[in-house]
């Protein structure tokens, strides 16, 4: 199983039947897998904050509940998380945070172990798929026993690598749901929260004691000259290159078992702390007064591998990664037939700043499209476009465009658009509505008309929503039609006040949308002047081939379309001024 499949299985084996999430690599498959088990309820919530709140509600009603997200999702969900730490959970509540060292598919590389300390929530960290399954079950037990939310931290390498997992019979689901009224515990007004605050510290002390006997904090004493304190995937890397050293492998990374660490320190001569990203364990162990070697030789950034660890320890102080196998780089690109391409081809040709957002369309920042000029976090494009246009408008410096995908708009674009209407913005927002959450693999959302469980449901009408937020200038366009797209953008850029264009066409890879793949296009080599205009689309099937220069001709090459890739979307036909593509 992959780590993610194993987490889903572990949750099921723990007798848990309730889960909520918002997709995000590397966490997405956990809920997709969990939703396949019989008798479960699993939902895609509109964003991570909602997912956590849904799970808190379920737990408060007596149902063991899971919430899943990628690391940055925890930022979105942080508000309820920090306070559910005070209230406790009644039943069990586990939050999976899937971190992404090396930023394989993320906008930052934050180390979410810090959230455990910050929010005073215990955290377990597995090192492989078997542990992922076992630890999530333990997480539910700890949550129930200590009346606390519990974090399970995964990383991309744990979530996406596969190892052998042995299965157990799931414990039978027990319905323990009931409504309990307990305002002292659940109404966090200052007077009551102050009391709960004290309870949190008492609970942390109990958890510290528990960490000392937690069976997955394991000591392996071998060669006593070197001891390694580590957790998660780096344990495997270190064992790979130094199988004979002594280890303290921590399964619970917060709170730490101080006595056990001291015991280990007393048994070995020299200690290395091996951890990816922040010196999270290292700083806490140093604060215990224990001498360790850590970030002075290991990198702060990126994933580790056995070579990085071997090099750092052998060279001691001169960290240098082993040379990586050189493979040709393959920059990501929008797919052939992607509906975003037409929109960004047009946007890139306007002299206007485009605040971007996160989704497939972010790829259009690259040459030659260059249709997007910033990307901070989900939903940021709308607020940023508003802020920029407010700052620029009074000085007559023109309008700003913000672009946002449909899933991202629903996640966190609605409130900033309301702000735009409320505070009389002058920005133009384009919602790239491809009827799905494409970037993370076609997840449903409130605009698709289907739930995660595959049931048809109420479908959000984007146009009606945008209008209800107070936006009066709304246009719906087809981004395959370049003229319509160009005219709409030009018109709205010339209009005063806030406006929204909904650029609507389903993702070409979205199976349920049944996008008709047209016959592949081809270039007439006699008509092609070799002007390269079609290359401006950055469409994967189109390439340019050198030809032998003929006498009296300036033509140095021609465009060629790879029929096996072409979806016949027709953008290049519209771009070619010579009628060479048909
Ligand atoms: C807070 C947060 N949650 C999740 C993600 C992962 N993620 C990135 S973009 C995206 C949604 C993309 O869907 P959409 O906006 O519809 O654009 P599309 O990819 O379909 O073009 C998701 C879930 C993230 N980067 N940040």
Label the structural class: alpha/beta
CATH superfamily of the largest domain: Thiamin diphosphate (ThDP)-binding fold, Pyr/PP domains
Looking at the structure, the CATH topology of the largest domain is Rossmann fold
Domain count? 4
Identify low-pLDDT runs. Answer: none
The termini sit apart by 47 Å
Helix content: 25-40%
Envelope shape: globular
The hetero molecules present are:
thiamine diphosphate
Based on DSSP secondary structure assignment, what is the total number of beta strands?
A: 18
Mean of pLDDT:
96
Rg (C-alpha, Å): 27 Å
Main beta sheet, described?
Answer: 7 strands, mixed
Task: Using brief descriptors, characterize the structure shown.
582 residues; alpha/beta; Rossmann fold; seven-stranded mixed beta sheet; five-stranded parallel beta sheet; 20 helices; binds thiamine diphosphate
What does the secondary structure layout of this molecule look like, with pairings?
Elements: H1 3-13, E1 18-21, H2 29-34, E2 41-44, H3 48-60, E3 65-70, H4 71-87, E4 93-99, H5 113-119, E5 123-124, H6 129-146, E6 149-155, H7 156-160, H8 183-186, H9 190-213, E7 218-220, E8 223-230, H10 233-241, E9 245-249, E10 252-254, H11 258-267, E11 270-274, H12 280-287, H13 306-315, H14 339-348, E12 354-355, H15 380-393, E13 401-405, H16 406-412, H17 414-422, E14 428-433, H18 462-468, E15 473-477, H19 482-494, E16 499-504, E17 542-546, E18 557-561, H20 571-575
The protein binds thiamine diphosphate.
Thiamine diphosphate binds at residues 22-24, 48, 70, 72-73, 76, 358-361, 378, 405-408, 432, 434, 436-440.
């Amino acid at each position: 199983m992959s780590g993610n499949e194993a987490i889903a299985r572990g949750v099921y084996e723990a007798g848990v039947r309730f889960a909520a999430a918002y997709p995000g690599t590397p966490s997405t498959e956990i809920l997709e897998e969990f939703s396949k088990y019989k008798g479960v309820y699993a939902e895609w919530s509109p964003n991570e904050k909602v997912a956590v709140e849904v799970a808190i509600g379920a737990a408060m009603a007596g149902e063991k509940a899971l919430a899943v997200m990628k690391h940055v999702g925890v930022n979105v969900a942080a508000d309820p998380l920090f306070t559910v730490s005070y209230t406790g959970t009644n039943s069990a509540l586990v939050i999976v945070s899937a971190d992404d060292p090396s930023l394989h598919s993320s906008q930052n590389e934050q180390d979410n172990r810090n959230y455990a300390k910050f929010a005073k929530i215990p955290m377990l960290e597995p090192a492989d798929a078997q542990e992922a399954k076992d630890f999530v079950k333990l997480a539910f037990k700890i949550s129930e026993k200590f009346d606390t939310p519990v974090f399970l931290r995964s990383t991309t390498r744990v979530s996406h690598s596969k190892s052998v997992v042995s299965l157990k019979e799931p414990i039978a689901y027990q319905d323990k749901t009931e409504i309990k009224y307990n305002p002292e515990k659940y109404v966090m007004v200052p007077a009551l929260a102050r009391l709960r605050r004290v309870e949190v510290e008492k609970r942390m002390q109990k958890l510290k004691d528990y960490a000392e006997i937690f069976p997955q904090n394991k000591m392996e004493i071998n060669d006593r000259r070197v001891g390694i304190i580590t957790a998660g995937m780096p344990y495997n890397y270190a064992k790979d290159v130094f199988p004979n050293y002594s280890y303290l492998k921590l399964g619970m990374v917060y709170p730490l078992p101080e006595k056990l660490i001291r015991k280990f320190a007393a048994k070995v001569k020299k200690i290395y702390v091996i951890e990816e990203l922040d010196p999270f364990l290292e700083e806490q162990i140093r604060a215990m007064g224990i001498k360790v070697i850590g970030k002075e030789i290991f990198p702060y950034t990126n994933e580790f591998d056995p070579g990085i660890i071997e090099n750092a320890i052998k060279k001691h102080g001169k960290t240098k990664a082993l040379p990586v196998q050189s493979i040709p780089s393959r920059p990501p690109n929008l797919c052939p037939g992607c509906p975003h391409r037409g929109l960004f081809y047009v946007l890139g040709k306007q002299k206007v700043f485009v605040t971007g957002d996160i989704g497939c369309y972010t790829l259009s920042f690259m040459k030659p499209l260059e249709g997007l000029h910033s990307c901070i976090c989900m939903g940021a494009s709308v607020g940023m476009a508003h802020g920029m246009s407010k700052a620029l408008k009074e000085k007559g410096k023109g309008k700003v465009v913000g672009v946002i995908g449909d899933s991202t708009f629903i996640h966190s674009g609605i409130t900033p658009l309301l702000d735009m209407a409320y505070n009389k913005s002058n920005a133009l927002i384009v919602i790239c509505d491809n009827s799905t959450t494409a970037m993370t693999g076609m997840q449903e959302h409130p605009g698709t008309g289907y739930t995660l469980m595959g049931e048809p449901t109420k479908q959000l009408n984007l146009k009606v929503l945008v209008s209800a937020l107070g936006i009066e200038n709304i246009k719906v366009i087809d981004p395959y039609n370049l003229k319509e797209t160009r005219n709409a953008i030009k018109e709205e850029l010339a209009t005063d006040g806030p406006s929204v264009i909904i650029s609507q066409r389903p993702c070409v890879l979205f199976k349920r949308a049944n996008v008709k793949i047209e016959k592949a296009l081809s270039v007439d080599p006699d008509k092609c002047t070799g002007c390269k205009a079609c290359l401006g689309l950055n469409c994967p099937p189109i390439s340019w081939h050198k030809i032998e220069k003929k006498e009296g001709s300036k033509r140095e090459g021609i465009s060629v379309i790879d029929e096996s890739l072409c979806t016949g979307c027709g953008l290049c036909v519209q771009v070619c001024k010579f009628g060479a593509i048909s």
